[in-house]
Amino acid sequence: MFHAQILTLFPEFFESPLSCSIPKRAIEAGIVRVDAIQIRDFATDKHNRVDDTPYGGGPGMLMKPEPVVAAIRRARELHPDTHVVMLTPSGSRFTQAKALEFTGKPGITLLCGRYEGFDERICDYVDEEISLGDYVLSGGEPAAMCVLDAVIRLLPEVLGSPESAVLDSFSEEGILDWPHYTRPEEFEGKKVPEVLLSGNHAAIEKWRHEQARLRTSKRRGARVDHDEK
Ligand code: ADE
Fold first, then answer.
1. 100-114 per-position pLDDT tens digit
2. What is this protein's function per UniProt (predicted)?
3. How much is the ipTM here?
4. C-alpha torsion 72→78→82→85, nearest 10
């Protein structure tokens, strides 16, 4: 079983997303187990403080090292092989390849911060720092939930059809998914591309790859001749 631990000040944040859809089914099927660890339980002062003002001045509060490092130690005690990931906007970019890499670990521990971030010394106690993208969320929790979701759906036996994971956008590194259509054949004057109705599988395959490359080039730039020599 894949074991995910979440270090957070807001364990309740994860309740609804984990009780819907694919994560719910994966938990019920015993493929994944998710445990939240409340960082505040490791506060060392009598006011249970987990944050403090930054040295050198500036706005906002930082997560203090003592409770966070104690929570990381607890996570490692519970799961000595766990891979500890800090969620921070200044981490390396999370990708589909990284999600796939995480499925090969015995488990992951996702460290979520609030306030303006973490005391830098905490970084020495984690295995890597991951960012969801170049924007700032109000905390690590939404980022951790995205990472967890992306990992869970890639675990063996989670998706009904193993093909759907393989055929995902990004399974070919950096190439976006092609456009998809379902019934009706015409909606408000917009027709499904003829080739998809043709039954010609080679032509459909070719069209899909062309569309994926065009879309990638248009939306992300410079990927149009990815697999062309
Ligand atoms: N915490 C706040 N913003 C974040 C981001 N973009 N990615 C990961 N963790 C975050």
1. 999 999 999 999 998
2. Specifically methylates guanosine-37 in various tRNAs.
3. 0.97
4. -30
Q: Is 89 a catalytic residue?
A: yes
Question: Is 153 one of the annotated active-site residues of the chain?
Answer: yes
Active-site annotation holds for 54: no
Residue 136, Cα to own-chain centre: how many angstroms?
A: 15
Rounded CA separation 67/112 (Å): 13
Q: Does domain 2-152 have CATH number 3.40.1280.10?
A: yes
Q: What is the CA radius of gyration of the chain?
A: 21
Residue 134 Cα: closest atom of ligand 1: 6
CA of 202 to the centre of ligand 1 (A): 42
Q: Does residue 155 have its Cβ closer than 6 Å to ligand 1?
A: no
Atom of ligand 1 nearest to the CA of 140: 1
- Domain definitions of the chain by residue range: 2-152, 169-220
Report the predicted TM-score, pTM, of the whole model to 2 decimal places: 0.93
Backbone angles phi, psi at 174, to 5 degrees: 80, 0
Tokens of 204: 């459909």
- Choose among 67, 24, 70, 69: nearest CA to 49: 67
